[in-house]
Amino acid sequence: MAIDFTLAPEHEEIRRRVRDFIRGTVVPAVEGLDEETAATTREEYLRVIFGLRARAREEGLWLPHMPKEWGGMGLGHVELAMVQSEAAKTRLGPWILNCAAPDEGNMHTLLHWGDDEQRERYLRPLLEGAKMSCFAMTEPEVAGSDPTLIRTYAVRDGDEWVINGHKWFISNARRASFAILIARTETDVPEGSRGANTAFLVDLPQEGWNDVREVETMHGSTGHSEIVITDLRVPDGAILGGRGNGHRLGQYRLGPARLAHCMRWISQAETALDMMVDRALNRYSHGSLLADKQGVQWLVADSAMELYQCKLMVLHAASKIDKGEDFRTEVSMAKHFVAGSLNRIIDRAIQVHGALGYSTDTPLAKMFQHARWARFADGADEIHQMRIAERTIAAYRATGSTSAATGGLPL
Q1: Residue 301 is part of which domain span?
Q2: Structure pTM?
Q3: How many CB atoms are located within 10 Å of the residue 286 CB?
């Protein structure tokens, strides 16, 4: 049988090294500094986290998602799942290993779509940790889940493009040295066409790129910017991936990026389940421990079953990516299910903790705030459900069976 859920010894060793580094070095170092605003000074915050990045490089745990020839660890998506899940035991973990969003997805995009000059100018500094980036696609006037409706326009003017538009929830924009900006360039195709948009590389800061504000969210102002673009000029050579390929480029970027989010969410869900069980084993009420009460046992059991499903879905989708197979349906299913499970498991953990879980004395309240965005980021739940249904119906029409739309598994 080809099905094997074990890792090769060398990959088990990598997982052990990542776990030891995160739990033994990173977690103690960032305690009290996990939020930038909680640092004694900004200088101290930067000194600690950049020092940890240097340690990660020394330990050979830098860029797990990138090929070895580009300075990475050369891991496939199955192996990457174990690294991301270990790294995400602390919020800063993926960033310290230089495999955090949005830079992670932008690295993949530049490697696949960039020409040699663009790779050296934009990809290389990302890999070195010398620069940060953002991906500017979402707009307030149109549905974020439908990039074919984008209203930011780029108009050719000689050897340059003049861009005008409005973007928001552009993560990392205020820290970015450049943006991958999606704009509509083709006016002779109908609205909704997937060949209307083009991706541009935009150096930041730059005249015409106006960072209006950081959008306040449930978990505060943490780098999701609103941008007004006014007569921004970029050279023709700033096009990334070819004119009219903006939609294809965006979807190429989002597929694996969605799964990488799931890998990190699994770590958070597991942390919440661990806390739930620990609380149940140590809290006495009405004649017995919470762990002995059926109502609490059901919360634990439901969470354990969901987490098991999450792990299987992510591993299977990752294996399809590694094999070069069509992974769109599996990633959509994983993204939808893991995001929902993350919210449900953290919510159950808060319930078992009672008022303590609702307070900020444990990390659960903050985890819950961060978890809510998972159900609409990189495609809202309902969009993924729509696509999953479409592919399931298409599979039945083509073959008389829905098997191909449920993983194509041998059972």
Answers
A1: 248-406
A2: 0.92
A3: 6
